[in-house]
Amino acid sequence: MNLMIEVKDIVKTYKLYKKPIDRLKESVLPMKKKYHEDFNALNGISFEINKGDALGILGRNGSGKSTLLKLITGVLSPTSGEIKVNGRMSAILELGAGFNPEYTGRENIYLNGLMIGLQRAEIDIKMNGIIDFADIGSFIDQPVKVYSSGMFARLAFAVAINVDPDILIVDEALAVGDVRFQMKCIEKMKELKANGTTILFVSHATEQVKRFCNRAVWLKDGVIEAIGESSEIVDLYEDYMKYNSSEDDQSRDAEKVESEINEEIETDMIFPNNPNILSMITKVNINGKKFKTFDQVEVEVEYDVYEKVISGLLLGVALYTPDREYIFGPNTHLEKIELPNTRGRHKVKYTIPRLPLLGGTYNIDVGLFNNEGIVCLDYKQEIVGFTIVNKYFSEGLVYINHEWEILQ
């Protein structure tokens, strides 16, 4: 395998001052009195990325993700350590980064292309493809200072992924922009990955990391907490966020939850005014509200498709406890079910022949996705719920088939 990025013992230290005047005092006063505290945003980071890898970078805000990407791209210099990069790099770090607000979109395409090492003649060849991909109409010849955040994202993505990079770096950029553009970007990124482009992908959407990336690294307080196969690292990270993060310690309004899980959404086949709504869940029914362990549970999902066709459309149904503990969540893509994806109203039934759950209350989420679950088209959280009531025969969350054998 060709080594594309080598990060070795990287430390990035910032000086933190309590007051702005302290920075001046430290620089001009004699005796070199220290007015700052050192903060290590990254503290001894080492890893390697090979050609064709898609590496997801996970971590809470402040864990060092963006600092790491800025070091790799050369926007920042490390305090100590070494970074080696092989190949042409294209990056989307912050909205509008690398754009001159006074230049037009077309002029900024030339500017960004020259910055990553393309010749003007090469940019001329790629210009029409970039403009078509961005799809911002006549705004391409307007100063980018008048652009909306979505237009910024479109142009930044269009430039970054249409210049044949060896390495593509994306920092939360998919959070901006409409669903149609997200789908187009994911398709292009998948094409680049298939052709051997190395991708670094930062996203708070862990399912995107799990489904798009083959490897992942979890940063915690400036160090690598775990690195390896993406599904494994995402599971470790989600467990940590669920059980160890104060961000998740939020109380629930029990009465509100009770009313929400019994809500049923139903609409007629009316095309929405919003062109970014491509598909919508219109009705969810369950065959009861009270069950016993081993009863059959049936969930009927009705949904509308407003496009002529949506490639890669999938449906997921997930079981949760009222505390949002994830129990089980299959989807039609993983189980190779061809979901109807043409314009019109469709209905699917999801059946659990023998529900193994023990006594308690449970909620069901239903979601429509595209691109193997990376792009969410519609999601209904806790759309229906049910309770399991048994005469006492076992304890725990699920019933597991088992045997007893008396040995003496």
Topology summary:
Blueprint: E1 3-17, H1 20-28, E2 36-50, E3 54-58, H2 65-73, E4 80-85, E5 89-92, H3 105-115, H4 120-134, H5 149-161, E6 167-171, H6 179-194, E7 198-202, H7 206-212, E8 215-220, E9 223-229, H8 230-243, H9 254-261, E10 279-286, E11 290-291, E12 297-309, E13 314-320, E14 326-328, E15 342-352, E16 360-370, E17 375-388
Parallel strand pairs: 3-7, 3-8, 5-6, 6-7, 11-17
Antiparallel strand pairs: 1-2, 1-4, 8-9, 10-12, 12-15, 13-14, 13-16, 16-17
Helix pairs in contact: 3-4, 4-5, 5-6, 7-8
Short description, anyone?
This protein is an alpha/beta fold. Helices cover 25% and strands 34% of the residues. 32% of the residues are buried.
What descriptors fit this protein?
34% strand, five-stranded mixed sheet, 408 residues, Coagulation Factor XIII, Chain A, domain 1, 2 domains, 17 strands, six-stranded mixed sheet, alpha/beta, Rossmann fold
How many discrete domains? 2
Low-confidence stretches: 246-267
User: What can be said about the biggest beta sheet?
Assistant: 6 strands, mixed
Structural class assignment? alpha/beta
The CATH homologous superfamily name of the largest domain equals P-loop containing nucleotide triphosphate hydrolases
CATH topology of the largest domain: Rossmann fold
Give the integer mean of the pLDDT values: 84
Q: Which CATH architecture of the largest domain?
A: 3-Layer(aba) Sandwich
- Identify the strand order in the major beta sheet: 5-6-7-3-8-9
What is the CA–CA distance across the termini?
58 Å
Task: Tell me the radius of gyration.
Answer: 25 Å
Q: Could you estimate the helical fraction of the residues in percent?
A: 25-40%
Report the principal-axis shape. Answer: globular
